[in-house]
Amino acid sequence: MTTVLVDYEAGNLHSAEKAFQRMAAETRAGAVVVSGDPDTVAAAARIVLPGDGAFAACRAALEARPGLMAALRSAVIGRRVPFLGICVGMQMLADRGEEGVETAGLGWIGGTVRRIRPDDPTLKIPHMGWNDLRIEQPHPILEGVATGDHVYFVHSYRFEVAQRADLLATAQHGAEIAAVIARDNIVGTQFHPEKSQSTGLRMIANFLRWQP
After folding, report:
1. What is the Cα–Cα distance from 123 to 117, expressed in whole angstroms?
2. By three-state DSSP, how is residue 48 classified?
3. Whole-number Å distance between alpha carbons of 122 and 201
4. Which of 4, 93, 130, 208 has minimal CB crowding within 10 Å?
5. CB 72, CB 41: distance < 8 Å
């Protein structure tokens, strides 16, 4: 079994690769590879889509790789392999994003990505650093994770889910932040699990064991 971290030149994959390889070894989950090759992605047993930067730029970078979007759809929608989107990789699951120019998302989990507008004007944007999770509903990806556990965020936009049933965990930064979302074989984290110490590593291990 191979877990593929999708490389489409939209983020630094080094820390994510190390964290996933570490937890794959501990859970005996098989190989972890970084690849932007469509055939490798299409054949993956699990897929991780990271993302750093702006929504529109990340979406364009995905589309610029010939065959990559088709490979993702074939694996995730067609074969229903477990999929994890991280940061902008989660945001791109939405119907659309409003960062800069309005851009269509993948539409795999209904919602819109909008700028965080805190009720408290003294709160800084981007939302950057450690924040507490609030668990909204149980899910295998959250096994062993509790309300109050800390994870590491870096973002200025938030995913507003269309259906509350898709929201697994939240955080607060002058507004409710969708921290973890999921539907069927698809899950996303707004924070970076690879940078979130023990809580993030536990969630990576949970993902590598997850059988939707």
Report:
1. 9
2. strand
3. 32
4. 130
5. yes
Q: For residues 35 and 40, give the distance between their C-alpha atoms in angstroms, rounded to a whole number.
A: 7
Q: Would you give the DSSP letter of residue 74? A: I
Condensed to tens digits (0 to 9), the pLDDT of residues 159-170 reads 999 999 999 999
Q: Is the dihedral of CA 90, 93, 95, 96 positive or negative?
A: positive
Q: How many CB atoms lie within 10 A of CB 144?
A: 11
The pLDDT tens digits of the residues spanning 43-59 come to 999 999 999 889 999 99
How far is the C-alpha of 143 from the C-alpha of 205, rounded, in Å?
10
Q: In what order do the strands lie in the sheet with 157-161?
A: 103-104, 96-97, 111-115, 157-161
pTM of the predicted protein model: 0.97
Which residue numbers are catalytic? Answer: 87, 192, 194
Query: Rounded to whole angstroms, how far apart are CA atoms 98 and 104?
Result: 9
Provide the residue type at 165 as one letter. Answer: A
DSSP per-residue letters across 139-184 = -GGGTT--TT-EEEEEESEEEEESSGGGEEEEEESSSEEEEEEEET
Distance from the Cα of residue 69 to its chain's centroid = 16
Q: What's the CATH number for 2-209?
A: 3.40.50.880
Q: How many C-beta neighbours within 10 Å does residue 80 have?
A: 12
Tokens of residue 194, six digits: 């690879």
Provide the terminal-to-terminal Cα distance of the chain, rounded to the nearest Å: 16
In this structure, what token pair is assigned to residue 188?
A: 């996303």
Contact by Cβ (8 Å): 4, 47: yes
